[in-house]
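pinned: reference chain
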Amino acid sequence: MYCIECGQILPSILTNSTICSKCKTPVATWWDETSKTFRTNRESILPDPGPKTAASGASPFYIEEKERVRMKARVNTQSEEERVFNGALVVLEMHFERPSTYMRETMGEAKKMVTKTLDLSLNKAEVRETLAKNVDIWKHLQKIFTAATSLLETRSLMKVEGAGEEESGGRPNGHHHDVSESAELILKNYEVLREDLHYLNNLLVISRNMLAIKETAQEICKTVGFDREVHRLIVLCVNVTSKGYDGENVDEARRVKLNEITELYKKLLVTCLQHTHNWTMGNDRFKMSFWFEMLFDDEMKNEPIHEMPPDDLNVEKVHQEVQNWLSRHRKKDPLAAKLLQAYQDQVPTGYTPGPLPEEENWINTDNIAESSSPVWKPDMQDKFEQDRLYARVSHEIDFWWRKVRDANFDGWVVPMETVEGAVERAEACKKNAMHRYMPRSQDQQYELDDQQFNHLREPPADDGSVGPDETDDRSIQGDNGLDDDEEEEEDDESYAEGPLRGLLTEIPNILDTKQIEALHMTVKACIVDSMGSGLTPAGENLQKTRCKMFLALDCGRNLLRELLVFIAVWEQNDQQFIFQITAQIIESFHHNALLPFAWNCLRILKDIVSPAQTVLLRLINYMFRARKDSPIYADVKDYNRDAKLIHFLYNYFRCRVVPDCLALLHAQAQIRQNARAAADFPVDLWDMERAKDGLSQYLDFISVIAEIPEMRHLLIEWETVYEMVALLKALEAGVARKNIDERPMPGQSGPARRPPSSILAVDRHEPPIQDANSTQYQDTPHRFPWAGIKIQILIILTSLIAPNNTRRQGPGNPIVQKQLLAHEGIMPLLNCCVYDGHNEYLKERATLTIKFLMEGCKEAQDFVKELVPVKQAQAQAQAAARAAQEASQSSASNASSSKPVDPNAIAAAKAQALAHAKESGITLGASDVEKKMREFERNIRSLKVGKELREKEEEASASAAAKEGREKKREVKIEFISARK
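pinned: its structure tokens
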């Protein structure tokens, strides 16, 4: 053995204190299980020349003198940390490539070296930088992970016989693995899996830290192919952690082992995502390379989006164009290129871990200049040259983007749906409320004339011109709230189970909120403008291009849906890190005019507002809430961008959300009036909750817009009052109020008997008295309470009708006052002045709205004045009702005394009561007011009765306590007298 520093022969027996006799270099050693000797990373394993043999005349291990001279002349310039880490990597490489080799003690020493290097890479920047510039280390890592990934797969996954090797996205067929046999395989290899996963995670953490120096380390990592091995490892981790196991057939001890291995795989997956983030950070070429691997799969086509016209995106052409762009942009970091060339020169000597891999799809572009003025030549046959002249990433993506943008992109072309049209839509939905959940086939007569906007449906002319990359002030076209003909199938494909397309799509279903941060940060780094490097020489913003690709391809859309649902499942609020990162991603869609398209992609036919759309609306609300009291609207572009998004979302609200919610409330009202059976209700409680969540989020969005002074006039102009009043009326008819006290009144032995249907038709808004099974009653879908919706509606109406001054003093907005009168909104507001346990502080909210309605509006004041004479008629009606009650009581007493009952007396009393009501001219609205007053009086009486009962109980307890006190005093007195005696 020779010293690697100077070539001096080392002693055969080494210890930790051994030094080279020539260069005085300390020799750090460990025990080599194979050779049964101490070994060091500072030695050259060159055996001494042995005696000559008779057969060949030379020793089989003889080293020529020329080679010895060359070895002595070779100087090792590596630092101590590099040599230690390289030595450990050599051991680990042999461990994974030859797993049957037994090296227990050696592996223990290698583990200590890796742990020490890990600590140094975390705490010392100079060590981190030194390791990152060592090509030998990167190559060793690549070879280790190549062998380890294959080994882990054979020890963790049992493939189904005949299953393919890979599926779309370069991802192994995780759903073609036998779950039960894979669990048994993991348990069988539990010990080695635990150790190997620890080794790999530590190595990946070190390489992640090495990437912190960015360009040089990123380039070396890419050149040696280590990024591809991390990609393979992500695939393996996803397949292992997403398949689960059969818990019923696993005992507790085995379950603990399976959970431990699963958690180790999750930990490794998190480190892989962090490694990917560091590898792409600040490098447009590697961001595009990551996007290329993530967004394209083997199918090379997009699935059609329901209700939307096909976008005709040629995915194969996009794939080729992005690949050509990557081929044209292969310029390496100068320092990395120098280090790689030095390594390549040393490969023939045999002193390196191995040759560098050849680059895929390599094209010599040294003499090819990139065009700085994009020109598209559709007739050119050479695709590479065609893309080079175009200079941008993908002409197909640019053409797709121009095709799907909003009809209002260049101006207000598509108007807001009128109130009359909205009324017709609502009526059509009500007619079909009991037959289907979303009655879209009846909406044909409400479609816009196809010829009217025919030019909006046709793709734009492709003249080869490329507009400036100034898309952050426009919105893009979905269907802008307008319905398309659709046939809803009983088996909704949107709820189909199975694997989702895309490398990263399943990760949100595997990791928790802390673990998944790296994925969100990577997506943000690839598409958010603030994380980009500006414009290319061709004038292209690559962040915007990647943002378009994200929504243009199925894999990106699937990942977006999972990221949004992740927020809902984990109940992330707007102060948490994941929510804020996702909000930045969504705002980048908005700046790139893609939010309306994203909204339509997230639709589910069975839902009024899908869960993903609900979360997206939450993020949009968060975005607009930040607009309050900010000078952003000083720029007309920013104002138009936001105004067009509000236009799209409100048009959708008017054309789809409100009609379907009114249809559900109408179905509830029909069942409440006994016009339909409860079994006919078309949806279950789960669907009702999703509908309520979507409506509530939409109302929150409208309330936020109403609080922005620059945008409030849009809601007034579009007559938002109509939707608010229509919802209030429907809630009043379809949902019973929750009383202050749900217990039966004193004197009632059980639940009140329901009145006959003839009386119910007149008194249909009376809330039924609930029995003890009120919880089960509330869980009935047709009696879903829609809790809190009235409060949100009143908040919106108050914001719209309130005076514009900061202190909200003076008369209300006259335009909104007239709209409330026109849509008969006074009575629904008065109905809100009665207590309702489903809507806290409803009366106070309603009082404030009515205040602004009455101030400065003579018509509203006159309407209320007309309700005052009703009190006189009410007194007469009450007297007639009392007479009818006395007549019924006398008939009951006659029945008890065996006297014949005179039915004419009861009929006469009822007729008298009806006559009084008819003569007094009580209108339907006045009757409603009277009913609300009667309900309020009942609530007050119940409170008084309850108060009297409590007072009596308190008096009884007080008297009992006083009596007990007197008895104790008497006993004490007797004892005192006895003591004196």
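why pinned: The longest strand covers residues 29-32. The CA atoms of residues 561 and 612 lie 6 Å apart.
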